[in-house]
Amino acid sequence: MTMPEVKEEKREITFRVYRFNPQIDASPFYDEYPITVEKGITVLRALNYIKEHIEPRLSFRSFCQAGICGSCAMRINSVSKLACTTQVWDELAFADRENVILVEPIANLPVIRDLVVDMDSVVGKIEKYFGWVESKMPENQMGKKEFNIAEAEFKLYDAATDCILCASCISECTMTKANKEYITPAVLLKSYRMEADSRDAVHDKRLGVLVSDNGVWDCTHCYRCMEHCVKHIPIMEAIHHIREDAVQKRGLSDTPGAKHAAAFVKDIEKKGRLVESLLPIRTNGLSWTVKNMLPMAFKMTKKGKTPPPPFMVKAVPGIENLRSMLKELKSRGNSNHHK
Ligand code: SF4
Ligand code: SF4
Ligand code: FES
């Protein structure tokens, strides 16, 4: 006789939680809380239990408990997620230590206390990049009639409106990690949503800031934001749309970012690969390159890592095929823009 399979429904699990109170702690540390957890419990419920029964000072944010408000984002086993929609038992598969779940604040934002981060810089960036619609409707008509848009237009930014500003994408963004002034993926997404709205009156102003330093051209296309968006929003599509819009409306010589993209395409067209030694000059000009790149160039020469001079960069085999593919892509792009 075979015994019926007994499914484990409870387990002792340790939550290793980041702790830091900048007012009294010299540096962050980790506390471990072993608790018995039933299957079906979320990380947020486990944290609530710890706060109620073990450590009342443990600080974290939560509100809706349903993946709607975005306040409970944190890094669970080193990945940014919403604690209220993350099942403890699912996380056991990703734990570095058996039955130990690591809980930390989201990255790239200053910690106020424990798992609570300061969102002020995000709010500041939403302000800087006009993250709202400034209505074209004359003031005397406001409140008297609706200002509708076509369904087809709404579809353009429908997905972007799902953003709950949880900052998980900001936490995972490689560019934000390197440069805290960077616009961030969440703010790019918000700007796109407003930029695509035909009722908005400040497109040009917004686009002007978006293409400036720390803006849309600084994104490195690592796709991490999109991979980790808790609402599965295609953030990269928004970033591409802003760039296309910038190139169409402001031309390719407008900013270093646009010039960089243009130089990139030209190299691929000509040789099928990049002429790296000339990219900084074509992007930022000779004087900027001499001033900013010379020290690095010396270091690279010392280590034997300088890119080959332009005359040594030969065209890749099959360059003719590549050129005709690019030509085809360009003509498709042009006909799409004229639709
Ligand atoms: S694709 Fe751009 S915005 Fe997204 S994570 Fe990478 S650098 Fe950040
Ligand atoms: S884009 Fe996604 S991950 Fe980023 S803030 Fe919005 S919902 Fe959160
Ligand atoms: S508590 Fe609102 S999203 Fe988690």
Automatic annotation (TrEMBL):
Cofactor: [2Fe-2S] cluster; [4Fe-4S] cluster; [3Fe-4S] cluster
SUPFAM superfamilies found in the cross-reference section: 2Fe-2S ferredoxin-like (SSF54292), alpha-helical ferredoxin (SSF46548)
Keyword entries, A-Z: 2Fe-2S, 4Fe-4S, Iron, Iron-sulfur, Metal-binding, Oxidoreductase
Top enzyme class: oxidoreductase
Domain 2Fe-2S ferredoxin-type: residue ranges: 11-100
Protein name stated in the entry: Succinate dehydrogenase and fumarate reductase iron-sulfur protein
EC code: 1.3.99.1
UniProt family annotation: Belongs to the succinate dehydrogenase/fumarate reductase iron-sulfur protein family.
GO biological process: respiratory electron transport chain; tricarboxylic acid cycle
GO MF entry, a single one: metal ion binding
InterPro entries to which the protein is assigned, alphabetical: 2Fe-2S_ferredoxin-like_sf, 2Fe-2S_ferredoxin-type, 2Fe2S_fd_BS, 4Fe4S_Fe-S-bd, Beta-grasp_dom_sf, Helical_ferredxn, SDH/FRD_Iron-Sulfur, Succ_DH/fum_Rdtase_Fe-S
A Pfam family reported for this protein in Swiss-Prot or TrEMBL: Fer4_8
Superkingdom of source: Bacteria
